Sequence to fold (258 residues):
Amino acid sequence: MDNVDQYDLKLQLLLEQMWGEGYLSPGGQTATQDLLQGIDLNDKTVLDIGCGAGGITASLVQDFGATKVTGIDVEAAVCQRAQQIVEQRGLQEQISIMHVAPGPISLPDAHFDIVFSKDAILHITDKQALARDAFRLLKPGGWFVASDWLVHRNPPGPAMQAYLKLEDLDFDMATPEDYQYALEQAGFNHITMQDRNSWYTPVAKHELERLQGDEREAFLQVVSLDYLNHSIATWQAMITALEAGEHCPHHFRGQKAI
Fold:
């Protein structure tokens, strides 16, 4: 992963209030279940790339049956939060959290049954290098299963550019064609790409309603009024990009041949 110190405490608090303990991306456990549909994690060893605050990482063990999970992230603060969640839930034997440097992933070849990532690869500039790393780290027959935020074209259209300016995170969003090519070049088989714009557009609208409506006071317990108002403006711009089709979250996966 390329970028560090993006998710400060205020942003972590806002996103966990929105999506649940340890979750920094939309949908919570339900979205993770959708992403993993048809993938059996029981008794599997999993790498979670961009583990963030650890909610999903813990869920991979508690809810999906993984035996061992290694969560990696480039941000020290989110790794500390993830470690806290692991310890609170008594999962130290099953989960290792690693604070890593940006760049190649320094873990053994053919070590994992599943390489997993949820909405984190948009922070990584070189998608082809990441795909090669995922392929190298997988055992034969293993799956790379991920979701990410994509754009339909580069450079992004005006609605997407307006959203990215407000979001002010170091997103490096690629197109579905970029991801397809990266997976193919890495050597993956059985590649699938699924556009999730139609799922996230109404979900994002509901999230905006929560920020503005009955849950407003709950959000104000964790962030300031100015921060909340900026977040509302950011959500509004994101919804415009979603409705324009410029913001197209995807699920994608590929298998390493046996």
